[in-house]
């Protein structure tokens, strides 16, 4: 059991290495040939969607809805492999890496959940039949370990398992959960070091001056995140009945190529800022580097939505953090607030909480990613307000997408 927990962490480490090198290769290509993505991105997107639909349909999308679907009681044990398995984990690694090699706006954190859950779930066949370790516990532990190893946020992994995967703490799984998170986290730390994802935020002179811009960031993040979640649910379910949805249903590969072209155009317009996960752009904002465009929030929002709509394997966490951080930065400039990194962090927590409607997970992840312990109450307040505003606009995103996954069950 411990060996598989460590293996899950190492697998996420390998996946991280793959995605970083893929994005670096794309960036090098895009810097040399700014027009290159207009040809490469549509072709690569179409190829990824074709491979996904033909060989690994369960690898499409984030990966979190698949794990949630596998945990639902209505899914028979014999059908769990439709959502989580070693085969899907390997396919997810290759296809999501291909998405970043294509320059699409996606993250690796959601896929890490499905990958680690697939590795840990495989351990069940090697355990004795009388073992008290259940498939449910393995899936939860694997999903939590994936978040912990991807972000180096062990507390965020615990809260993610409770708030998103199970919706309630289960005492019998707590030991397994913590063991998987600790071992997976140690694997990541041993390779990449014990550094925070976005460095350290220096908080200076927190005062009542933060109240107005902070509330503005939370409300705007909630509105934008709720709209984003609603758009994803409607477009992925094909509920709108518009021409694009019909085209996606009848010609998914050609639709994916069209989406890839749209992402490439957005990348050209933003001078390359909207390609990839958005990590570099967010880190530069936190460090006060780079020239932040006032259109970045809109362009990254569209690029991430279109990428998800295309049907490629890829996550939403990192792009959501990039969008929220840029929104906080814009409001800092609008209100002339002196300490922009504080509002950037609040925007990251707020937008992620609004998209996932998991405020505790969002604020803990951001707190650990930026080593922002001085901002605990502010991050918590931003996440709760944004999540509350989002609920007025949209149903919970991952729960809705998990229901779409359950529709894939064989009809009896």
Question: Which labels suit this protein?
Answer:
single chain, about 400 residues, mainly alpha, Clc chloride channel, 2 domains, 18 helices, about 70% helix
Short recap of the structure:
The chain has 412 residues and is mostly helical. Helices cover 70% and strands 0% of the residues.
Explain how this protein is built.
With 412 residues, the chain is mainly alpha-helical. The chain folds into two domains: 2-197, Orthogonal Bundle (Clc chloride channel); 208-404, Clc chloride channel (Orthogonal Bundle). Helices cover 70% and strands 0% of the residues. The protein has 18 helices and no strands. The longest helix has 31 residues, at 2-32. The two termini are 35 Å apart. The mean pLDDT is 87.
Secondary-structure topology with pairs:
Layout: H1 2-32, H2 37-55, H3 64-71, H4 86-101, H5 109-121, H6 135-151, H7 154-166, H8 171-192, H9 211-237, H10 243-250, H11 252-269, H12 279-286, H13 296-310, H14 317-335, H15 340-356, H16 359-369, H17 376-391, H18 397-406
């Amino acid at each position: 059991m411990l060996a598989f927990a460590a293996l899950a962490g190492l697998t996420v480490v390998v996946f991280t290495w793959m995605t970083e090198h893929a994005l670096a290769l794309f960036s090098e290509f895009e810097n040399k040939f700014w027009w290159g993505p207009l040809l490469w991105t549509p072709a690569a997107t179409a190829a990824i969607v074709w491979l996904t639909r033909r060989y690994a349909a369960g690898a499409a999308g984030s990966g979190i809805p698949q794990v949630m679907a596998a945990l639902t009681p209505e899914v028979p044990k014999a059908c769990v492999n439709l959502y989580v398995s070693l085969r899907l984990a390997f396919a997810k690694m290759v296809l999501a890496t291909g998405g970043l090699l294509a320059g699409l706006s996606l993250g690796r954190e959601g896929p890490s959940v499905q990958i680690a859950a697939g590795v840990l779930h495989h351990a069940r066949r090697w355990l004795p039949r009388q073992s008290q370790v259940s498939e449910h516990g393995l899936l939860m532990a694997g999903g939590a370990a994936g978040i912990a190893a991807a972000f180096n946020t062990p507390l965020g992994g615990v809260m993610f398992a409770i708030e998103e995967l199970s919706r309630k703490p289960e005492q019998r799984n707590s030991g397994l959960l913590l063991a998987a998170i600790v071992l997976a986290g140690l694997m990541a730390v041993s390779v990449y070091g014990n550094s925070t994802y976005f460095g350290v935020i220096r908080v200076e002179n927190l005062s009542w001056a933060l109240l107005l811009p902070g509330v503005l960031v939370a409300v705007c993040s909630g509105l934008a995140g709720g709209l984003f979640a609603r758009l994803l649910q409607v477009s992925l379910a094909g509920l709108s009945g518009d021409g694009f949805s019909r085209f996606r249903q009848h010609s998914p590969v050609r639709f994916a190529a069209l989406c890839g072209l749209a992402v490439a155009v957005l990348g050209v317009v933003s001078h390359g800022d909207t390609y990839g996960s958005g990590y570099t752009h967010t880190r530069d904002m936190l460090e006060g580097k780079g020239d932040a465009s006032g259109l970045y929030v809109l362009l990254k929002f569209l690029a991430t939505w279109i990428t998800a709509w295309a049907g490629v394997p890829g996550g939403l966490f990192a792009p959501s953090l990039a969008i929220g951080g840029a929104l906080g930065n814009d409001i800092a400039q609008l209100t002339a607030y002196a300490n922009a990194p504080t509002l950037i962090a609040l925007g990251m927590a707020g937008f992620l909480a609004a998209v996932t409607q998991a405020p505790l997970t969002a604020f803990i992840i951001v707190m650990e990613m930026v080593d922002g312990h001085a901002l605990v109450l502010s991050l918590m307040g931003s996440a709760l307000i944004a999540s509350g505003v989002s609920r007025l606009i949209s149903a919970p995103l991952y729960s809705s997408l998990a229901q779409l996954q359950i529709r894939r069950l064989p009809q009896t």
